[in-house]
Design a protein that fits this description.
alpha/beta; Rossmann fold; Arc Repressor Mutant, subunit A; 2 domains; 5-stranded parallel β-sheet; 4-stranded antiparallel β-sheet; 8 helices; 14 strands; globular
């Protein structure tokens, strides 16, 4: 697993690299950067599987940087944010800016590794590329490639969209509360008032035609959450 680290503090930067190079999780290769300008140049030349970004940087705002990576670079991989702030609102801002997980300083090596391992597991980074595909009617899920195809045609999804779609496809008919979804897909155990889930659900409905076109509908349950349901065949007129 190729990990990019953007952290301006040299001591903290060395600590992160050391903590990730000395563990029993997915084999990793870490490349660290001090400034956002250096990091962005590397993004155009290197391929990373996962990014660790400090919120406060001398030449950029971490949140704005992630938004740029998502929107301008089209980068779909997981992002772990690190910051000294511990406010609940900061967690909301981080998620809505495109982060996948959030750690506050001081960083504990064991927790850092656990979060990285969880992200790798949720996004398929620690699975063999040749993993078996799973079929759900017109939908084909390939965990190893982190991809979903509809009627044999691959659909371009972000890492978070894939995780969310995989959750629903693997548990069709099961009702998930917003809290369930936050914990299982975002890895956040907090009752956060955020539109992040709704935004991702809306995108999935469009990208994967979860409107019943191919037999599956992603429905909202008022004041609770969402459920992927099998659409009943239209009854013939009598």
């Amino acid at each position: 697993m190729h990990i990019g680290i953007l952290e301006d503090d040299p001591i903290q930067r060395r600590f992160l690299v050391s903590a990730l190079n000395d563990w029993d999780g997915p084999r990793s290769q870490c490349v660290s950067f001090e400034r956002a300008s250096e990091f962005l140049k590397a993004m155009s030349k290197q391929t990373f599987d996962l990014l660790i970004i400090d919120w406060y940087l001398p030449d950029a705002d971490g949140m704005q940087l992630v938004k740029r990576l998502r929107q301008d670079f089209g980068w779909p991989g997981p992002v772990l944010f690190i910051t000294a702030s511990q406010g609940e609102n900061d967690v909301v801002v981080a998620l809505e800016s495109g982060a996948d997980d959030f750690l506050t300083k001081p960083i504990r090596p064991a927790e850092l590794r656990a979060r990285i391992f969880a992200l790798a597991r949720r996004t398929g980074l620690n699975k063999d590329v040749g993993s078996n595909t799973q079929a759900f009617g017109a939908y084909t899920l390939t965990p190893g490639h982190h991809s979903i195809a509809v009627n044999g045609t691959p659909v371009e999804l972000t890492a978070r969209e894939y995780e969310l779609a995989a959750l629903f496809l693997s548990h069709a008919g099961q009702l998930f509360s917003r809290q369930n979804i936050l914990e299982m897909v975002w890895g956040v155990r907090a009752d956060l008032a955020t539109r992040t889930i709704d935004t991702h659900i809306s995108r999935l409905r469009k990208k994967l035609s979860f409107d019943g076109t191919y037999g599956l509908q992603l429905k909202s349950v008022y004041k609770y959450g969402y459920r992927l349901e099998h659409k009943e065949a239209d009854k013939p007129e009598v």
